[in-house]
UniProtKB/TrEMBL annotation:
Cell compartment(s), UniProt: Cell envelope
One of the protein's GO biological processes: cytochrome complex assembly
UniProt entry keywords in alphabetical sequence: Cytochrome c-type biogenesis, Disulfide bond, Isomerase, Redox-active center, Signal, Signal-anchor, Transmembrane
Gene Ontology CC, one term: cell envelope
Superkingdom as given in the UniProt entry: Bacteria
PANTHER family in alphabetical order: THIOL:DISULFIDE INTERCHANGE PROTEIN DSBE
Record-given protein name: Thiol-disulfide isomerase or thioredoxin
InterPro entries tied to this protein: AhpC/TSA, Thioredoxin-like_sf, Thioredoxin_domain, Thioredoxin_ResA/DsbE_sf
Length: 200
């Protein structure tokens, strides 16, 4: 009898472990929550990269607030530059996958008038965000936005607080030229940036 109970207990523990693993793997997926996200539901990115014609581009709010490293950060300080605005969380697997691509392209394009800026979201412990930046050699600044309030300032259909990671690329006039609701490869990022770098 005790062997049957032990076998049932092992089965229950195994099922619980599998369920926990599945939840962790889908932290940024459809209708699941990130590990630091409280009860906020996230939906998976659409996998789309949308380019916006110059005549239809909209401005973004002038964000300001503390950065992950505790300094004051203001988006308007980068006026006249092409700005890559990336929303990320240390708990998000696709964010970890794209981080080396962002870090590399940020370094390669710094002398070409491109500024990368992050918006760290749902990391309730700033130490996790700092560790992420160290681990992936992120040199550019990120707003620390654990509650997601900065994301909510964006006009409808520009930046979705439900798709993490997501990226906006702003032209030199500070208007949205590209939106990506997906993890970006190095090639995709460079392809989106090149025309904006060359634009007069």
């Amino acid at each position: 009898m005790s062997q049957i109970r032990a076998s049932r207990r092992r089965t229950v523990l195994l099922a619980a472990g599998v369920a926990a693993g599945a939840l962790l793997l889908s932290a940024c997926g459809d209708e699941q929550t990130g590990s630091s996200s409280g009860d906020t539901k996230f939906v998976q990115g659409t996998g789309e990269i949308t380019e916006v014609p110059k005549s239809r581009r909209s401005s973004v709010p002038d964000l300001s607030g503390p950065s992950v490293d505790g300094k004051e950060l203001k988006l308007s300080d980068f006026e006249g530059k092409v700005v890559v605005l990336n929303v990320w969380g240390s708990w998000c697997s696709p964010c970890r996958a794209e981080a080396p691509n962002l870090a590399k392209v940020a370094r390669d394009t710094e002398d070409q008038g491109v500024q990368f800026v992050g918006i760290n979201t749902r990391d309730l412990d700033k130490a996790n965000a700092k560790a992420f930046e160290r681990n992936y050699d992120i040199d550019y600044p990120s707003f620390y936005d654990p509650s997601g309030k900065l994301i909510l300032k964006f006009p409808k259909n520009t930046l979705s607080p439900q798709a993490i990671p997501s990226t906006l690329i702003l032209d030199k006039d500070g208007k949205v030229a590209v939106r990506a609701l997906k993890e970006l490869s190095e090639k995709e990022l460079r392809s989106a940036l090149d025309p904006l770098i060359d634009a007069k």
